[in-house]
Amino acid sequence: MSEPANFDEMSGPDGTIRPAYKGYHDWLSEQDGSWMRRKSFEAESLFRRTGITFNVYGQEDAEERLIPFDIVPRIIGGGEWRRLSRGIEQRVHALNAFMHDLYHRQEIIRSGRLPERLFRSNTAWLSQMVGFTPPGGIYNHIVGIDLVRTGTDEFMVLEDNARTPSGVSYMLENRETMMAMFPELFSRVKVQPVSNYPRRLATSLAACAPACAGEHPTVAVLTPGIYNSAYFEHAFLADQMGAELVEGSDLRVVDGRVQMRTTRGFKPIDVLYRRVDDDFLDPLTFNPDSVLGVPGIMDVYRAGKITIANAPGTGVADDKAIYSFMPEIVEFYTGEKPLLPNVETHRCADPDSLKYVLDNLEELVVKEVHGSGGYGMLIGPTSSKKEIRAFRAKLEAKPENYIAQPTLALSTCPIFTRKGLAPRHVDLRPFVLMSPKGIDITPGGLTRVAMKKGSLVVNSSQGGGTKDSWVLDD
């Protein structure tokens, strides 16, 4: 059976415009092409003035780069979004229950559903979290679920991001840019808002404050500093939330609380939205050479005197070998079949799977279990024989470090080029907030797009761009 053609987000197989895009397509057909090209250049200039950039590490020309932005939105109908939201909510509930179980009774391992080796040798699993329950029982305060469509209209989960999901500032700036450039469009097409995300984030984090917090908990964003690739987002979110933006040097443990230095002395922090990896969070507990974290913060945390979002140790859920067991994880903790399927995944730690992967490297996508950002992966169909040989050696040396997936025919969405509309591959990262009050899913999320013709890599670090994501208010 042949692989079905790419799913076109805007048009059906016969060229008819899908219902979700009708209002936008009608508007677009009325616009002059040269005017749209000017608007595209205007958007780029706006991003430059705003400073919407990211850093690329490990390259000779490592520097701040502009995030490519496309002015054609990715649109999802309201009914479809409601169905998708149910699957996202189910998955996030299961992830949080999994985190609690993994650091307590480990019932899923006792049941034989999950091999113990997957976390015993996993550096993201932290023994310091064993037996400890974070305030409110929430581990995954902010989650990004990466979704893709292939040859059908079914969404599948490509990755879970439960450690420190990034990109929400681009989602917000994309919408603000589109509304500034095309205000009349939003009067014709009713789109659900996303601009209230910072307020919802602040409310959700405050709801997770420890018992010692007052009526108005103090929330702060911990950043590694201006040289971090996502510093723009750290500063943006702190500003939009009305929270403090702090670095490790601004904080210290005073009287059993994590406190920040102010002009009036030290002030306790109740909730710390950290954008610092676990290893650098506390030099007394983890990496002793870290200057990015706060000495003693883990002792305060385990004493229940501060909330850290996301909880240390949640990186286990980002592991791609764990991902391959998510159908079992969802069913174990919810008693339901997953509403959102996984992409077919081969675990290279399994000898039979490894043989299959080695025999079919030219056709598969192979990823590091702990990899992110599009680094450390092989895309077989676009790799040279030399690259495949080199990757084969890595795979044979440490098979447990890798999983493999089929090369997906990701859905396409048009981008605006000098020659008009052209299809490019996309994914979608909805952002989910979790607190004791429930789960809050922002309508839409971040659409990442492979700006290069034929490319399947949407990561900004690999040349990808972003689009505004619309969920219709119907």
TrEMBL record:
Domain Circularly permuted ATP-grasp type: from-to ranges: 73-450
UniProt xrefs under InterPro entries: ATP-dep_Glu-Cys_Ligase-2, CP_ATPgrasp_2, UCP005522
Gene3D superfamilies per the UniProt record, alphabetical: 3.30.1490.270, 3.40.50.11290
Leader sequence segment: none
Pfam families per UniProt: CP_ATPgrasp_2
PANTHER family: BLR5612 PROTEIN (PTHR34595), SLL1039 PROTEIN (PTHR34595:SF7)
Designated name of the protein: Circularly permuted type 2 ATP-grasp protein
